[in-house]
Specification:
InterPro entries: Acyl_CoA_acyltransferase, GNAT_dom. By secondary structure, this protein is of the alpha+beta class. Helix content is 23%, strand content 35%. The chain has a 7-stranded mixed sheet, with helices on both faces.
């Protein structure tokens, strides 16, 4: 399997519209409509980066990276944060999520060499995603964050190796 990342513009919602989730997974991430409306309304679009995950010319996943002034309130300065990560339900369980998380680390070490940590939050009851992150090189910082929409979140991080 050869996975790559492809940058998306903030108007490329149609490119990822087919990435549906299982009904029980929808509670864990913002809808694509919401994500793209936020991207389009952002005062600093240069600091939020949307990506698709591509395998065999098919888009199988999607996520957003945020940096600097676009970081969420729970993140310390100087890190990059991962948001809205999803693999389409028909593509899950094939290692694409793991491949994507490796590619994110590579993208950061190549394009943001001073950044040493990738961070994210995951809902306490999102058991599958938590298992996924803990077996994909992330560790629990033991910090928690209460999100008005999603409830209690664990803050995870992955160290970025220099190239
Ligand atoms: C979390 C997510 C991105 C993982 O993507 P993925 O491509 O399915 O992940 P991978 O195929 O790389 O598998 C990663 C791990 O999940 C496990 N897994 C795969 N299918 C599974 C299933 N149906 N149930 C439970 N675990 C499963 C794999 O076994 C693997 O673990 P292992 O290495 O110990 O064997 C995907 O499940 C998803 O989009 N979930 C809904 C959205 C979400 O919750 N996003 C995270 C928000 S913080």
């Amino acid at each position: 399997m050869h996975a790559t990342l492809k940058t998306l513009s903030h108007f490329d919602r149609a490119h990822v519209a087919h990435l549906k989730l299982e009904p029980e997974q929808e509670q864990f991430v913002d809808s694509l409509d919401f994500v793209f409306s936020e991207l389009q309304g952002n005062a600093r679009p240069d600091l939020e980066h949307a990506f698709s995950v591509v395998v065999s010319h098919q888009i199988v996943g999607f996520f957003v990276l945020r940096e600097k002034a676009a970081l969420p309130e729970w993140a310390p300065p100087g890190v990059i944060t991962l948001h809205s990560f999803r693999v389409g339900r028909g593509y899950q369980g094939n290692g694409y999520g793991k491949a994507a998380s490796r590619l994110v680390s590579q993208w950061i070490s190549t394009n943001r060499p001073s950044v040493r940590r990738l961070m994210l939050t995951v809902e306490e009851d999102n058991v599958r995603a938590r298992h996924f992150y803990m077996t994909s090189g992330f560790s629990d910082t033991s910090a928690t964050y209460y999100d008005k929409k999603f409830g209690f979140q664990n803050v995870l991080e992955r160290k970025i190796k220099s190239v």
